[in-house]
Amino acid sequence: MKTMYWKDSKLFLIDQTKLPDEVDYVECSDYNDVIDAIMTMKVRGAPAIGVAAAFGMALAELAGEDLEDAADAIKSARPTAVNLFWAVDRVLRAANSDSGSALKEAIKMYDEDVETNRAIGKYGSVVIDDGDTVLTHCNAGALACVDYGTALGVIRAAKDEGKDINVICDETRPRGQGARLSVFEMQEEKIPVKLIVDSAAGHMMQKGKVQKVVIGADRVAKGGVANKIGSLMVALAAKRFKIPFYVAAPKSTFDEENSIYDVEIEERDPDEVLYYGKCRIAPEGTEVENPAFDIVPSDLISGIITEEGILKPI
């Protein structure tokens, strides 16, 4: 299942806020539609955001918009995922070259994403042993990319090699990407999967029910990685119980110039915490902090699985 496709000079995105109950596509006919889809998390996951942003630039080009203005607007959509900035800058360079165009570059990036994820899966599958149960946090599958996935791509590749693999997905509050999206993907792939609440991850490790942890990343920088909130707690538990903890991410997610501790951590709407679906779960007047990401330090990471092989944290 591809997360997006280009047709008739428009970008179509799976509305991930409706999954798993409904598979519906959002039509983006200008770059502001893409910005809205990114901000409202209709499209999410660092690689998918990057490619969607590239097509947003293509829409701006086709409409005769100022590409510098479009680039600035698209970059403002979400601050933490470095792929967004990488993709916009890459397309801008291509559009400003003599023979390039934003659309041509966006299509190239679309095709590259699938190839990159399959390479990540190939390199990562070697760390998964036959009989392993793998815990994953949030969703770093096909829905977080164009197709195939990073962390879930590693699991898919291990399964395709004939390994007997089981998966544990934590729910990933407050938006439930693990419960809604990762479980959905594993069921579609016929890979055995169990869902746990976020706070049960340490318990499952303590009981010997987890052999590996594989997560994705929204940014890899000096000192560690930024990933969905809750990743740090999973990494700390894995360290305590001597469970290998891997990050699967394309090189486009790497920010080798900056410290991970200088990255802006997005703060999201308090209602994501105050409500579970449409049901309010906290008293009126409750104060909320809702960071979307946290930082996993390099010393907690066994390796970073990329399309170029398994690398040491930077």
Describe, in plain words, how this protein is organized in 3D.
This protein is α/β, with parallel strands linked by helices and 314 residues long. It folds into two domains: 4-116, Four Helix Bundle (Hemerythrin (Met), subunit A); 127-311, Rossmann fold (3-Layer(aba) Sandwich). Helices cover 36% and strands 21% of the residues. The protein has ten helices and 16 strands. The protein has helices at residues 31-39, 46-62, 67-75, 82-95, 102-124, 151-160, 177-188, 201-206, 231-240, 271-274; strands at residues 4-7, 10-14, 25-28, 133-136, 166-170, 193-196, 212-215, 219-222, 224-228, 245-248, 254-259, 275-276, 279-280, 293-297, 303-306, 309-311. The strands form four sheets. Strands 6-5-4-7-10-15-16 form a seven-stranded mixed β-sheet, with helices on both faces. Strands 11-8-9-14 form a four-stranded mixed β-sheet. Strands 1-2-3 form a three-stranded antiparallel β-sheet, with helices on one face. A hairpin with a 2-residue loop joins strand 1 and strand 2 (10-14). The chain is globular and about 60 Å long. The mean pLDDT is 97.
Q: Overall 3D geometry?
A: globular
Largest sheet: 7 strands, mixed
- In the predicted model, the low-confidence regions spanning at least 5 consecutive residues are none
- Name given to the CATH homologous superfamily of the largest domain: Translation initiation factor eif-2b, domain 2
Order of helices and strands: EEEHHHHHEHEHEHEEEHEEHEEEEE
CATH topology call of the largest domain = Rossmann fold
Helix content: 25-40%
CATH 2nd-level architecture of the largest domain: 3-Layer(aba) Sandwich
Number of domains: 2
Number of helices: 10
What class, by secondary structure content?
A: alpha/beta
Rounded to an integer, what's the Rg over CA atoms?
19 Å
Mean pLDDT: 97
Extended strand count:
16
Strand content: 15-25%
Name of the CATH first level of the largest domain: Alpha Beta
Instruction: State the distance separating the first and last CA atoms.
Output: 33 Å
Q: What is the strand arrangement across the widest sheet?
A: 6-5-4-7-10-15-16
